[in-house]
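Lecture 7 notes: from sequence to structure.

We start with a single chain of 195 residues. Read the sequence below before looking at the structure.
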Amino acid sequence: MAHITIEPVTADRFDDAQHALSGGGDGRSCQCQWWTLTNTEWQSTSKDEREALLRDEVEAGPPPALVAYVDGEPAGWVRVGPRTKQVRLSRTRIFAANSEEPWDDPDVWAVSCFVVRNEHRRAGLNGELLRAAIGYARESGARMIEAYPIDPAAGRKKTSNELFHGVLSAFQAAGFREVARPRPDLAIVSLDLTG
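Now the structure, written as C-alpha cells:
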C-alpha cells in the first residue's frame, strides 16, 4: 500500500510543487495562477511569468496550496486559501451571482484547483488532498470553505483537464453541501468550519 503524506507548499518544496504540477494536464502551463489573475493579466503572461508569480506567492506565504507525496514522490496539488486572494472567482459571473458568502470576507476560503500526476490518478488522491485542505483551512482560521466542483454525471463526459475544479461526489463525501447549481454540470458547494 502506498504511503501518502500531504504538506503545505513552502519555498523549500517549490521544486516538488513543480513536479506535481507537471505530470499531465494544464498544471505545467497554468502554474495554478488561473484563479489569481484577471483575464487581461492571464492573457498577457507566459508560462515562465506565471511560474515566477507562483514562486513569489509561495515565498511570500502563507502557503497557497498543498502538495501530496506518494511514497516520497510529489504526486498531486490542491490550491486552498482565502477566496479574496483568488480574484477571478469573484469575477466569474456564475460564482459571483450564486455564492451565499460576501466576496470581501477573508475568512471564506476556496478550494479551487486540483492537479494529480497521470501515474497517480484513480487512486483516491483527490479525496486525500481535499481532506488535507479542509484541515489546513480549519487550522488557519477559515470560517467557511467554498468550492466549484464538476458533476461528471451531468452532461457529456469530461476530460481530466476539465476536472481541475474537483468532482462533486468527493466534496459531498467530505461533508460539503450544495449551495447552487449554476449549470447542470457545475455546482457551488460550501463547508462551515465553525461547528
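The CA atoms of residues 94 and 188 lie 9 Å apart. Keep this in mind for problem set 3.
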